[in-house]
Amino acid sequence: MSRMRVGWILPLSIVVALLLGLLPLPETLQPLRPYWLALVLAYWVIEAPDYAGLGFAVIVGLIADLMFGSLLGEQALRMVIMTFILQRFRARLRFFPVSQQSLAIGGLLLNDRIVTTAIHMALGEPSLPWNYWWAPLLGMLLWPLLFMLLDALRLGRRG
């Protein structure tokens, strides 16, 4: 893997994921917004672990906290938990077909919703409405497309 290729694609993909998270959506579609940042970070943890680890997850999570106006450290904690799980199972997950990776990513996104709910409950904040639980399913369905796009960019393949 070329250092130059990862060098500009990784930060650019994180910035795009952050911007997609800020993109205004109609109120009815808001609960279906995939957690783009988690999907992009998951790709980099799986495919380029030398560049995306726990420290990177903390930094990206803190930037997301500041951009999205959430509780400082909430998304950082969520990113670190996801990154830790991915690092633990990376050797197996990397060789799964993309369809099986999608199921694992769906499980991670569902776990992220559970962590978010636990944080909100611990702080006495209102929990997410039931329709926000559909977003992990949408993220799972988007994983193959995102994976192929980022893989093509990282490896320099065309079309």
TrEMBL record:
Parts of the chain that traverse the membrane = 52-72, 93-110, 130-150
Q: Which GO terms describe its cellular component?
A: plasma membrane
Q: Which InterPro entries match?
A: Cell_shape_determining_MreD, MreD_proteobac
Q: Can the keyword Lipoprotein be found in this entry's annotation?
A: no
Is the Cell membrane keyword given for this protein?
Answer: yes
Q: What are the alphabetically sorted keywords of the record?
A: Cell inner membrane, Cell membrane, Cell shape, Membrane, Transmembrane, Transmembrane helix
Biological process (GO) annotations held by this record are: regulation of cell shape
What coarse category fits the chief subcellular location reported for this protein?
membrane
Report membrane topology: Multi-pass membrane protein
| Localization (cell) | Cell inner membrane; Cell membrane
- Report the protein's function: Involved in formation of the rod shape of the cell. May also contribute to regulation of formation of penicillin-binding proteins.
Protein family membership: Belongs to the MreD family.
NCBIfam families named among the record's database cross-references: shape_MreD
Please name the PANTHER family in this protein's record. ROD SHAPE-DETERMINING PROTEIN MRED (PTHR37484:SF1)
Q: What is this protein called?
A: Rod shape-determining protein MreD
Species of origin reads Pseudoxanthomonas wuyuanensis
